[in-house]
Specification:
Blueprint (H helix, E strand, L loop, with lengths): L2 E6 L3 H12 L3 E7 L6 H14 L6 E3 L13 H4 L21 H11 L4 E6 L3 H9 L3 H4 E7 L15 H5 L1 H10 L3 E4 L1 H4 L6 H8 L4 H19 L9 H10 L4 E7 L1 E3 L10 E3 L14 E7 L1 H12 L3
Parallel strand pairs: 1-2, 1-4, 2-3, 4-5, 5-6, 6-10
Antiparallel strand pairs: 7-10, 8-9
Bound molecules: beta-D-ribofuranose (BDR) and calcium ion.
Calcium ion (CA) binds next to helix 1.
């Protein structure tokens, strides 16, 4: 059995990612919550609420509620006031843990040493903090899956920066330089595989509890992505990353590359510069991440349909 921590800034695609892990029999040992999409308290509530919807009790550890150094902004305009649309959900039974997420990561890395996988569909503040507190987690965490950055320079929060890396580029720099075994799934790759009108209608007609939840969670985001972001539907940044983590065959083409993060506080903040050609230039170094370039959309959507047929 595979053991995962899922690190969330809990909006719709984070919730769906959690459900994908559970549906695919991954042992989710913890959810860690980090600053990002919406107000921090609501991110925690969403995580607890999401677990209640599938009757699961998994520890939820709040952690960093702001980036290491910089200021950031939440993006309710993208995901709705509550991150899963405008609805503000309240968990009924579950409560968050007291322990800080960074400490939980360190403890769980020891408990599952050599086996633990970290799924970061979120800014990297919690993982960077854990690493700064205890460098030995590099050897204990088997794999780090990251939804973040861009490989061709097409961002979403700025023209060149993807949101997760932009929120805390200092944390991202620490994590990318630390020596983890990283797979990075870039924003400007996943936007090539949005959920089309045909697929959206098919999902609407499924009429399972999960598909109805899906439609209610994604309606706000879909409107934003298809109008403002001019995407042909809504993309699944976090869910595609999660599907690749579950089943590497969802990624068709991957290359090991050197990635450097622009953590300066200027207009290129959060940009990920990927040495795509492995050029022997002064700024480049040996590969520090595996970059996903192409996705098997059919295989990914099979996982989505399978999940939406759960109940
Ligand atoms: C990423 O940023 C967040 O808005 C999403 O949850 C996703 O993790 C996309 O840039
Ligand atoms: Ca996310």
């Amino acid at each position: 059995m595979r053991h995962f921590i899922i690190d969330c800034d809990t909006a719709e695609d984070d919730v769906l990612s959690l459900y994908l892990l559970l549906k695919n029999n991954i042992d989710v040992v913890a959810l860690t919550i980090v600053e990002g999409n919406i107000l921090y308290d609501q991110e925690i509530k969403n995580a607890l609420w999401a677990l209640e919807q599938v009757s699961r009790e998994i520890p939820v550890y709040p952690g960093a509620n702001k980036p290491l150094i910089k200021n950031y902004m939440t993006v309710e305009k993208v995901h709705g006031k509550g991150g899963i649309g405008d609805i503000l959900v309240e968990p009924k039974r579950l409560k968050a843990k007291e322990k800080h997420a960074a400490l939980a990561i360190i403890d769980l890395a020891s408990k599952y040493a050599g086996e633990l996988e970290f799924l970061a569909i979120s800014p990297l503040t919690n993982l960077a903090l854990a690493y700064l507190l205890d460098n030995s987690i590099i050897k204990k965490i088997k794999k780090v899956w990251i939804m973040g950055g861009a490989v061709f320079g097409i961002g979403n929060i700025t023209p060149v920066a993807e949101f997760n890396v932009w929120v805390d580029p200092d944390a991202a720099k620490i994590v990318f330089n630390a020596g983890f075994d990283i797979t990075m799934v870039p924003w400007d790759v996943i936007i090539n595989y949005p959920v089309t009108d045909e697929e959206w209608n098919l999902i609407k007609n499924m009429r399972t509890k999960m598909s109805e939840l899906y439609v209610s969670m994604y309606s706000h985001y879909r409107k934003y992505s298809s109008t403002i972001q001019k995407i042909n539907g809504h993309p699944h940044p976090d869910a595609i990353t999660t599907a690749i983590a579950i089943d590497e065959r969802v990624a068709i083409r991957k290359e090991k590359r050197f990635v450097v993060i622009d953590n300066t506080d200027n207009i290129t903040r959060g940009m990920t510069l990927v040495d795509r050609f492995d050029a022997d230039t002064s700024w480049s170094d040996k590969p520090n991440a595996e970059i996903v370039y192409e996705i098997n959309k059919k295989r990914f959507m099979e996982k989505i349909y399978d999940l939406l047929n759960w109940f």
